[in-house]
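Quick question, first post here. What does this chain look like in 3D?
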Amino acid sequence: MAALDFPNSPTTNQLFTAPNGVIYQWTGTLWQAYGTTGLVNVGAAPTFDSTSAFLLDNSAGYNITGSTPMTSGQGTQIFSRVFTANNPANPIQVSVTSVVGGGNAGTCCLALFVDGVSVAQQGGVYNTSWGLPVSLYWQGVLSAGAHTFMLRFVGTTGLYINGANGTPYQLQKTTMVISEVAQAAAGPAGVQGPPGVMPVGTVNPQTGTAYTLQSSDINGTVTMNNAATNTVTIPSGLGGAGAYTQIIQIGAGQTVVAAGSGVTLNGAYGLTCRAQWSSVGVLAYAANGFVLSGDSAP
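> Answer (accepted):
Ran it through. Tokens below.
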């Protein structure tokens, strides 16, 4: 790995972004990773190098676990971080937790900016001595590449992040966690099932002058082919409600549909086929209750 090429003759607190993305700060005597404990105060908003880093106070440079929480005014920057999105199809999510306090009543709000655009805000009315929890969540999709996420405080000047008036709130730290949610890969395709079979009704050809429907004729067709008048009888117990049989008069002899013992049969136009090649349907609307439809006649 090649040595980092730091700027010549840097000024105190000057920042330098290395090719590997790490930001360094000139303390006056050496270059040190920006945002770590012990850096000299730059008189500007703090930053962090990982999602678990504590905030540094905006004015004194103390770690937040020390005695001085960060005092916040309108527009104070809390976090600023560059995060690289790898896949534009994966959502990016940001989760922020904090505690705001102060000696006076007021309002507080945390505002999240992505590439300079406000995308989410969360806060409330502050009317206690200190210790108001504030949380914020945002999820969205971004183009692949580096994006700047900035968290700012918006509200009454004089409130404090993570405590009040110099008193940390139970060593509370404000955190901003940024992550890319990878989408699970599609699983292997399942085994294709056998092709479906479309049921085909049976055709039962009859050539006599009398025939009684059978259970095997349900959902099928019966043809009557005789030169003399012929009769198709519907017996009792032929299927239940919904059973259906088609009857076709093929011969010159007229086909009559008759009800067997215990069967009720009705037809709006009659109970016979109207002419040769007429087709009628017999439908059970109830047990032993049938209706004749189609090309029928008295």
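The domain at 50-180 is CATH 2.60.120.1340 (Jelly Rolls).
Confidence is low (pLDDT under 50) at residues 35-68.
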